[in-house]
Design a protein that fits this description.
Elongation Factor Tu (Ef-tu), domain 3, 6-stranded antiparallel beta sheet, globular
Length: about 220
């Protein structure tokens, strides 16, 4: 069986937070993605003999949003590690040089470098949020990051953004009041992007509406 998608090399893997790694992947020919978009990654998370036939059931696929502010010779995805997962523990244990397959980019939520941004992230949403904030700064625009997680990832990049003048707030996972206050404070400070699981993004949308904004104008990605 041939695995669908473009084969790409895993260039490097680095730990970016508790149970979180970033994978730097080779950019396939013709791949052009914007911050906010995602890819479908396919891999066989076990040792496969060169002569062994790969079965369809061996292939595991997951969607991952880009966490790099731009795509060059490589691009980055951020992977939260589920110890009981079928794919993420295997990805986290890679050493570089392995091959995975990707399709994409997918998604209509993108940052085009043309406005100030307010990036709101819950848990794994930090990857695209930090990439959009970095892209905004690189484009000469202002950025705000509001991030809710008890065990934050990409802290080094968030600190660098703060040093560059971005307003960064990292909140505890149960701090709903702080999250609502931060959203209300920055409601008019730029295009709002929100990334996270369903309960989180629903809370963000409701807070925007309750504060007099329009959640339909926000760019919201529900991770399910």
């Amino acid at each position: 069986m041939t695995i669908e998608g473009s084969p790409v090399t895993v260039e490097s893997i680095r730990e970016v937070g508790p149970e979180t790694v970033a994978l730097e992947l080779e950019t396939p020919e013709g791949f052009d993605a914007r911050p906010g978009q995602f890819v479908l990654l396919r891999a066989v998370p076990r040792d496969v003999d060169a002569e062994e036939e790969i079965d369809e059931d061996d292939v595991v696929m997951r969607h991952y949003t880009l966490s790099s502010p731009a795509v060059g010779e490589t691009f980055e995805i951020t992977v939260g590690i589920d110890p009981d997962g079928d794919l993420s523990p295997w990805l986290a244990d890679l050493e570089g040089g392995e091959t995975v397959h990707i399709e994409g980019p997918f998604g209509t939520i993108t940052y085009e470098g043309d406005t100030d941004v307010v990036a709101v992230a819950g848990g794994p949403g930090v990857g695209p949020a930090v990439s959009i904030a970095e892209a905004a700064h690189e484009s000469g625009h202002e950025a705000v990051v509001v991030y809710q997680d008890d065990e934050p990832a990409h802290v080094d990049r968030l600190e660098a953004l703060e040093d560059a003048g971005a307003d960064v707030a990292i909140l505890d996972e149960d701090d709903s009041d702080g999250l609502a206050e931060a959203i209300e404070t920055h409601l008019e400070d730029g295009q709002i992007y929100a990334f996270g699981f369903e309960d989180f993004v629903r809370f963000v949308a409701d807070t925007i509406d309750d504060a007099g904004g329009d959640s339909d104008e926000a760019q919201i990605e529900n991770f399910g």
